[in-house]
Amino acid sequence: MKNRKIMIAGMLICAITAGCGTALPHADGMGETERETKEAQLNSSDETEKIQSIAQAEEQTENSDVEDADDQLAVIARTRNQWVNDPDYADEMYQFAIADLDHDGRLELIVSNCGGTGIYTYSRFYRVEENGTLKELKTSFVEGDSQPDLIADELTVYRKETKETLQEYYIVYDDLRVSPAEHLYATDAMSVLEDEIKVETLATMSWLYVAGNSGDEGEAQIVCKDADGNPLTEEAYQQYAQTYFKKQGYTEDTLLLRWTDIGEFMEKTQEGAEAFLKKTYE
Fold it and tell me: Helix and strand tally (H, E) in the chain?
């Protein structure tokens, strides 16, 4: 009996001393160390869920389909730092216009700057993608070559539609001033491919002023050619695009463009820029 009492007393002492086992459990059945570990795991899990939730929301926003025209205009306004830069030269006019050039429901953005002694024009094209991003389109422009002057209130369009395809060509013009006495003109056809803007020259006209001798009045020498080098009269040059496409069964239409000065546009707030585009292109 005495030995039994001693054993019971020893067991009680072990139960209440740190050296004989773990600490007493809390009401939830966990020891202090286990509880701290569990709380840390829960906190970590909550933080992970928050991060995942934010990432999923951002991914859904980025990958969500942008179909509505107003939503596409908002993308253009939101990404303006992507498509606006400071031209080194030829910046007398620096403007942009928006249109659905290929009628696929996706808006195209045209950014052009024009100026300099040669009346040079440089243009870039973008398209609003379905995932809400803005993609720059390739062009057939060759660096160093003159580009068509796109800043115009309207463009003539020649269109032919079949069961399989819709073919459209926008007539654009280029005026390159070689010198005060010499100009080179071109009539071009611009088309929109899947990811590229293609420009093809239809006809050209060179204009050269030749001064007269001994005070005689000078005269302009004009030479017109088609893309194959065949000579054209000045009148035939002026009507070349219409003649060329109507012979092939194309119908004529007009695209109206609204050009906006980029400097003024960049002064607007984000909300102001979106509201301006929606009002302008409604």
Answer: 8, 13
SS3 90: coil
Length of the chain: 282
163 in a structural domain? yes
Q: What is the C-alpha separation between 269 and 272, in angstroms, rounded?
A: 5
| Residue 26 counted as domain residue | no
Residues 133 and 76: their CA atoms lie apart, in Å, by: 9
Model's pTM, two decimal places? 0.74
- The closest alpha carbon to 96, from 273, 262, 276, belongs to 262
Label the pairing between strands 219-226 and 231-232.
antiparallel
Q: Residue 33 has what pLDDT?
A: 53
Give the pLDDT score at 66.
Answer: 72
> Using CA atoms, how far apart are residues 274 and 150, in angstroms rounded to an integer?
24
Q: Is residue 275 part of a domain?
A: yes
* Residue among 58, 245, 258, 61 at smallest CA distance from 155: 258
Identify whether the C-beta of residue 35 lies closer than 8 Å to the C-beta of residue 23: no
Q: How many domains does the chain have?
A: 1
Residue 223: domain span: 69-280
Angle between helices 69-78 and 270-280 (to 10 degrees): 140
Give alpha helix (H) positions in 223-269. Answer: 234-238, 240-246, 262-266
**Model confidence pLDDT, tens digit, residues 182-227:** 999 999 999 999 899 999 999 999 999 988 776 677 889 999 999 9
**Is 22 inside any structural domain?**
no
φ and ψ of 262, to 5 deg: -70, -35
Instruction: Give the span between the Cα atoms of 188 and 195, in whole angstroms.
Output: 19
Cα separation, 109 vs 104, in Å, equals: 14
